[in-house]
């Protein structure tokens, strides 16, 4: 696979330092015609989704409150157990749902696949691969 070559290159000296703007579109030379149409709109502005900002902000505040409660009121065994379950479920998400089922980056026998589905379920993910 060949990497497309940039026809026009931009240097920092090409951009006016007083009015520093990025070029609107860079042209690529490729055999694939659709690759030549791809450009970057530097004027694109993302919209803020305030429902998500409120949701994730609240989630982080509650997370800090939960960490405070875990440090002050919970037994050490409970904290260790929750850390072990959290790490195991993250392994299930990253190794199972992402690498095995989404990308098929490795092969796994049935016992490992079942274990990864159980760890995904502990993490709150629902998988229908069987």
Automatic annotation (TrEMBL):
Transmembrane segments: 49-67, 79-98, 110-127
Swiss-Prot/TrEMBL GO biological process terms: unsaturated fatty acid biosynthetic process
Localization of this protein: Membrane
Domain of life according to the entry: Eukaryota
InterPro entries found in the cross-reference section: Acyl-CoA_DS
Keyword terms: Fatty acid biosynthesis, Fatty acid metabolism, Lipid biosynthesis, Lipid metabolism, Membrane, Oxidoreductase, Transmembrane, Transmembrane helix
The name this protein goes by in its record: Uncharacterized protein
Annotated GO CC locations: endoplasmic reticulum membrane
Lipid bilayer topology: Multi-pass membrane protein
Gene Ontology molecular function: any one: stearoyl-CoA 9-desaturase activity
Family classification: Belongs to the fatty acid desaturase type 1 family.
Predominant cellular place of this UniProt entry's protein: membrane
């Amino acid at each position: 696979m060949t990497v497309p070559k940039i026809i026009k290159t931009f240097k920092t000296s090409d951009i006016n330092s007083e009015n520093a703007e990025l070029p609107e579109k860079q042209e690529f030379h490729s055999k694939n015609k659709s690759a030549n149409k791809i450009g970057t709109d530097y004027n694109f502005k993302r919209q803020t989704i305030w429902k998500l900002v409120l949701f994730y902000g609240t989630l982080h505040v509650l997370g800090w409150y939960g960490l405070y409660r875990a440090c002050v009121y919970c037994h050490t065994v409970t904290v260790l157990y929750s850390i072990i379950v959290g790490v195991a479920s993250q392994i299930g998400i990253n190794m199972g749902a992402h690498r095995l089922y989404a990308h098929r980056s490795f092969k796994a026998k049935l016992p490992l696949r079942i274990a990864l589905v159980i760890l995904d379920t502990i993490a709150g993910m629902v998988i229908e691969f069987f």
